[in-house]
């Protein structure tokens, strides 16, 4: 559950657009080996999150709406998977939790969840892709 194919593809899309040039879906799919139908679905989510923008017209395509210097892996993953978690019970029902008390396993997994989120927020995509 940690990282889905959708997150992987979203990160690849941003990587394909990192140069600030606009690219069409076919170019992105070929370069990053992403199925076209998946790419359109993910682009819609990335647009909604303000990460990419569409360029209309005959030579249209997509480009990053924000600089890689301000984007993190966390931003990209949250755009496509807002319920991202290391295990399903982090955000959903766990029959071992009662009231405000978490079972010890859930408490440890929650700590791991927060650590993963902090690591994903720590470096920008510029640091990762260019640095």
Automatic annotation (TrEMBL):
Q: One GO molecular-function annotation for this sequence?
A: DNA-binding transcription factor activity
InterPro entries reported for this sequence: TR_Rrf2-type_CS, Tscrpt_reg_Rrf2, WH-like_DNA-bd_sf, WH_DNA-bd_sf
Q: Record's Gene Ontology CC terms?
A: cytosol
One Pfam family hit: Rrf2
**PANTHER family (alphabetical):** TRANSCRIPTIONAL REGULATOR, WINGED HELIX-TURN-HELIX TRANSCRIPTIONAL REGULATOR, RRF2 FAMILY
Q: Which NCBIfam families match?
A: rrf2_super (TIGR00738)
Which protein, by its recorded name, is this?
Answer: Rrf2 family transcriptional regulator
Species this protein is from: Candidatus Mediterraneibacter stercorigallinarum
